[in-house]
From TrEMBL:
A Pfam family of this chain: AlaDh_PNT_N
GO CC, one annotated term: plasma membrane
The EC number(s) this enzyme carries: 1.4.1.1
Alanine dehydrogenase/pyridine nucleotide transhydrogenase NAD(H)-binding domain boundaries: 149-297
Lineage start: Bacteria, Pseudomonadati, Pseudomonadota, Alphaproteobacteria, Rhodobacterales
Active site: H96, D270
Ligand binding (NAD(+)): S134, D198, R203, V239, L240, V267, A268, I269, D270, V298, A299, N300, M301
Protein's UniProt name: Alanine dehydrogenase
Lineage top rank: taxon: Bacteria
Top class in the EC scheme: oxidoreductase
Similarity comment text for this entry: Belongs to the AlaDH/PNT family.
Annotated InterPro entries: Ala_DH, Ala_DH/PNT_CS2, AlaDH/PNT_N, AlaDH/PNT_NAD(H)-bd, NAD(P)-bd_dom_sf
Keywords per UniProt: NAD, Nucleotide-binding, Oxidoreductase
GO molecular function, one term: nucleotide binding
Amino acid sequence: MRIGCPKEIKPQEFRVGLTPHAAREAVGRGHEVVVERDAGVGAGFADDAYQAVGARIVDTAEEVFATADLVIKVKEPQAVERKRLREGQVLFTYLHLAPDPEQARELMESGATCIAYETVTDQNGGLPLLAPMSEVAGKLAPQVGAWTLQKANGGRGVLLGGIPGVAPGKVAVIGGGVVGTQAARVAAGMGADVIVLDRSLPRLRYLDDVFGREFKTAHANAGAVAEAIAEADLVIGAVLIPGAAAPKLVTRAQLSTMKPGAAIVDVAIDQGGCFETSHATTHADPIYEVDGIMHYCVANMPGAVARTSALGLGNATLPFLLALADKGWQGALAADPHLKNGLNVHAGRIAHAAVAEALGLPLAEGSLAA
């Protein structure tokens, strides 16, 4: 099979869908690998590193899309990339279709088979291709939140760790999954006073058992969330429903209860965000203010640490990529129900139930529907 990797073109996106390590594995199994020139430079991988393992470098993205049977990326295809997809081609990348009906429509029109990293599952009910980027985003969230809180950026001017005689900043993390756990660990490590809110009591027990007094936990009922955001200097939104739009857990009206200059980091912005006032931003212009509250809503946070992110993502996607290449997409999905859960678009129809429901579109009938 011919595997193609174009350079990412979303603003300030430096990750790459295929690392030289993954290219080596694919070439070693008899597959052809085509990489757009400079695709890996942002993550620290020169063209020579790909050529050294047997990949072929081409000058343009058009050549990649025109020749590849399987296109591997990081971010959802941008409008110009969607026009390059064709019937019979397989796209393997993050899609986040629930809040993006235009992308969904154009992918359906392309006729391509689109498999989304974020809905591939594992035997434990986890999301193995989302997890490494969730870990990165979770660890980044307190870091960028602390920056947003600086007075020069419009924030309260609060140091999360405090100093002797001055109390530390308060951080509320809404969601106790991978993102929330990593965010809480880092914020607590910075010396902040941290509380994690989640609706799952078993998850809260797990966090309490593993982390003890490192941070506090609370059930994420409406009252507890309202209290936590009113007291917090920094609120981190870390809620995910696989394939679906993120629930709006904080309304605009509630911003008036927050401290002036408090900061919000919405890690769920890829799925539409979990704050009513959230809209996607970029690394070039990451923050904005609504009713005196500073919002950080960068839609590709892990792109800021592109090398770590590309290596982590590459480690996770490699077994699935090789399965798709070795067996073809139909054989790979038939052999692995967890990979099959990644199927979002096929033959002009939505093939994932949660995505179809979020978009208000019919679900493809038959054995391919996930």
